[in-house]
Amino acid sequence: MPPPRPPTVDPATRTGADAPSEWPGEWLRGVLAVCVLHLLHDGPTYGYALAQRLEENGLGTVKGGTLYPLLGRLEDAGLVDVDWRPGTSGPGRKYFALTALGRDAAREQAHAWCAFAQLTTTLLTDSSVAATPAPPGGTPC
Length: 141
Hints:
Blueprint (H helix, E strand, L loop, with lengths): L24 H16 L4 E2 H10 L7 H13 L3 E6 L7 E6 L1 H26 L16
Helix pairs in contact: 1-4
């Protein structure tokens, strides 16, 4: 059996032989809140900047119709505070910042997601439970 091949997807650019054109929507819905909370650890920012950072980090284009309702739910849950700031050369922007509860939730959710991702990766790479054949030349991951 040949040794597993290294991944051919650059996570920073989502390019390479195995890169999807877009990630499945249900995957993004599952991880988007965790990622947004994590990005807000860097400090207050507005929705468009969050969408750009998500795209820069390989999650693809996250539309406002997906991002802003999520931010509203995070606000309703007490995880983010919202602050309108005047624009310097245009309209004002709605800035989002983590609350203390949001910082705790971000840490807890990141830890839980990493554990879930590790379990999923183990399932996909453990040949004793593999129900789906690996792609030609290696393991699924």
